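sorry for the late reply, my laptop died twice this morning and i had to redo everyting from scratch. anyway the thing you sent over, i finally got around to it. pasting the sequence first so we're on the same page, its 156 residues, then the predicted structure underneath. double check i copied it right bc i was rushing
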Amino acid sequence: MLSVMSEVGPVSETPVDAAVGGIVGIHHFGLTVRDVETSAAWYENVLGFTRVGAYEAPDGSRRKVFLRHRGLNVRLGLTQHRDGDGGSFDETRVGLDHLAFAVANRDELDRWARRLADSGVIHSAVAPANSIPGAAVLVLRDPDNIQLELFADPTS
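ok and here's the structure:
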Protein backbone atom coordinates (compact mmCIF):
# COMPACT_ATOMS: atom_id res chain seq x y z
CA MET A 1 0.00 0.00 0.00
CA LEU A 2 1.32 3.44 -0.93
CA SER A 3 1.46 5.96 1.89
CA VAL A 4 0.87 9.60 0.92
CA MET A 5 2.05 12.45 3.13
CA SER A 6 0.10 15.66 3.07
CA GLU A 7 0.11 18.91 4.97
CA VAL A 8 -3.20 19.88 6.52
CA GLY A 9 -4.07 23.24 8.04
CA PRO A 10 -1.93 25.95 9.58
CA VAL A 11 1.02 25.15 11.80
CA SER A 12 0.51 26.41 15.34
CA GLU A 13 3.10 28.01 17.60
CA THR A 14 5.22 25.48 19.48
CA PRO A 15 6.65 25.80 23.02
CA VAL A 16 10.06 26.49 21.43
CA ASP A 17 8.59 29.35 19.36
CA ALA A 18 7.05 30.85 22.51
CA ALA A 19 10.33 30.57 24.43
CA VAL A 20 12.84 31.91 21.89
CA GLY A 21 10.93 33.13 18.84
CA GLY A 22 10.06 31.33 15.65
CA ILE A 23 12.17 30.39 12.69
CA VAL A 24 11.23 32.90 10.02
CA GLY A 25 12.77 31.40 6.90
CA ILE A 26 15.74 29.71 5.34
CA HIS A 27 18.75 32.01 5.01
CA HIS A 28 20.94 29.88 2.73
CA PHE A 29 21.71 26.41 1.51
CA GLY A 30 25.28 25.14 1.42
CA LEU A 31 26.25 22.31 -0.91
CA THR A 32 29.63 20.61 -1.09
CA VAL A 33 30.85 20.22 -4.68
CA ARG A 34 33.94 18.75 -6.35
CA ASP A 35 34.78 21.79 -8.49
CA VAL A 36 33.25 25.07 -7.35
CA GLU A 37 33.76 26.84 -10.70
CA THR A 38 32.20 24.04 -12.75
CA SER A 39 29.22 23.81 -10.41
CA ALA A 40 28.72 27.59 -10.19
CA ALA A 41 28.71 27.83 -13.99
CA TRP A 42 26.13 25.02 -14.19
CA TYR A 43 23.78 26.70 -11.68
CA GLU A 44 24.16 29.99 -13.58
CA ASN A 45 23.68 28.56 -17.08
CA VAL A 46 21.07 25.88 -16.40
CA LEU A 47 18.96 27.32 -13.57
CA GLY A 48 19.57 31.05 -13.97
CA PHE A 49 21.42 31.79 -10.72
CA THR A 50 23.74 34.81 -10.47
CA ARG A 51 27.11 34.83 -8.74
CA VAL A 52 27.07 37.33 -5.84
CA GLY A 53 30.27 36.54 -3.96
CA ALA A 54 33.16 34.23 -3.31
CA TYR A 55 35.48 33.24 -0.48
CA GLU A 56 38.76 31.39 -0.25
CA ALA A 57 40.10 30.23 3.12
CA PRO A 58 43.53 31.73 3.86
CA ASP A 59 44.99 28.24 4.22
CA GLY A 60 43.42 27.09 0.94
CA SER A 61 41.31 24.44 2.67
CA ARG A 62 38.08 25.50 0.96
CA ARG A 63 36.71 27.73 -1.78
CA LYS A 64 33.15 29.03 -1.91
CA VAL A 65 30.94 30.70 -4.47
CA PHE A 66 27.69 32.36 -3.41
CA LEU A 67 24.73 32.46 -5.78
CA ARG A 68 21.31 34.08 -5.78
CA HIS A 69 18.24 33.66 -7.93
CA ARG A 70 15.78 36.49 -8.45
CA GLY A 71 12.92 34.17 -7.51
CA LEU A 72 14.39 33.07 -4.17
CA ASN A 73 14.91 34.83 -0.88
CA VAL A 74 17.81 32.53 0.01
CA ARG A 75 21.40 32.24 -1.11
CA LEU A 76 22.96 29.08 -2.45
CA GLY A 77 26.54 28.51 -1.32
CA LEU A 78 28.76 26.06 -3.16
CA THR A 79 31.85 24.84 -1.30
CA GLN A 80 34.86 22.95 -2.65
CA HIS A 81 36.94 21.32 0.10
CA ARG A 82 40.60 20.75 -0.72
CA ASP A 83 40.59 17.47 1.21
CA GLY A 84 37.22 16.27 -0.12
CA ASP A 85 37.02 12.65 -1.27
CA GLY A 86 36.15 13.64 -4.85
CA GLY A 87 33.20 11.27 -4.99
CA SER A 88 29.73 11.97 -6.32
CA PHE A 89 26.78 12.88 -4.13
CA ASP A 90 24.77 9.92 -2.82
CA GLU A 91 21.37 10.64 -1.31
CA THR A 92 21.31 7.20 0.32
CA ARG A 93 23.93 8.38 2.82
CA VAL A 94 22.92 10.37 5.89
CA GLY A 95 22.56 14.08 5.07
CA LEU A 96 20.85 15.87 2.24
CA ASP A 97 18.43 13.83 0.15
CA HIS A 98 17.54 16.47 -2.43
CA LEU A 99 16.78 20.15 -2.89
CA ALA A 100 13.46 21.19 -4.42
CA PHE A 101 12.90 24.56 -6.10
CA ALA A 102 9.31 25.77 -6.40
CA VAL A 103 7.90 26.93 -9.72
CA ALA A 104 4.64 28.87 -10.10
CA ASN A 105 2.48 26.18 -11.71
CA ARG A 106 2.33 23.07 -13.91
CA ASP A 107 2.59 25.10 -17.15
CA GLU A 108 5.83 26.64 -15.93
CA LEU A 109 7.12 23.19 -14.98
CA ASP A 110 6.37 22.00 -18.52
CA ARG A 111 8.29 25.01 -19.91
CA TRP A 112 11.25 24.07 -17.71
CA ALA A 113 11.13 20.52 -19.08
CA ARG A 114 11.34 21.87 -22.66
CA ARG A 115 14.16 24.28 -21.74
CA LEU A 116 16.20 21.55 -20.05
CA ALA A 117 15.67 19.18 -22.98
CA ASP A 118 16.68 21.89 -25.46
CA SER A 119 19.81 22.52 -23.36
CA GLY A 120 20.75 18.83 -23.27
CA VAL A 121 20.24 18.53 -19.49
CA ILE A 122 19.16 15.03 -18.46
CA HIS A 123 15.97 15.10 -16.39
CA SER A 124 12.89 13.07 -15.59
CA ALA A 125 9.55 13.57 -17.21
CA VAL A 126 7.13 15.81 -15.35
CA ALA A 127 5.24 13.47 -13.01
CA PRO A 128 2.76 13.60 -10.15
CA ALA A 129 4.53 14.24 -6.83
CA ASN A 130 4.15 11.45 -4.30
CA SER A 131 4.04 13.81 -1.32
CA ILE A 132 1.30 16.36 -2.11
CA PRO A 133 -1.90 15.54 -4.00
CA GLY A 134 -2.16 17.57 -7.20
CA ALA A 135 1.52 18.61 -7.21
CA ALA A 136 3.94 17.78 -10.01
CA VAL A 137 7.71 17.36 -10.06
CA LEU A 138 10.63 17.18 -12.47
CA VAL A 139 13.93 15.69 -11.24
CA LEU A 140 17.43 16.52 -12.48
CA ARG A 141 20.98 16.29 -11.16
CA ASP A 142 23.76 18.83 -10.95
CA PRO A 143 27.39 18.10 -11.98
CA ASP A 144 28.05 16.46 -8.59
CA ASN A 145 24.99 14.22 -8.86
CA ILE A 146 23.02 16.23 -6.27
CA GLN A 147 19.36 15.54 -6.88
CA LEU A 148 17.39 18.70 -7.61
CA GLU A 149 13.68 19.01 -8.16
CA LEU A 150 11.52 21.61 -9.83
CA PHE A 151 8.22 21.41 -7.97
CA ALA A 152 4.76 22.80 -8.83
CA ASP A 153 2.50 22.76 -5.78
CA PRO A 154 -1.03 24.04 -6.38
CA THR A 155 -1.65 24.29 -2.63
CA SER A 156 1.03 26.93 -2.00
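Strands lie at 28-33, 50-56, 62-68, 75-81, 99-103, 127-128, 136-141, 147-152.
thats about all i looked at so far, will dig more tmrw
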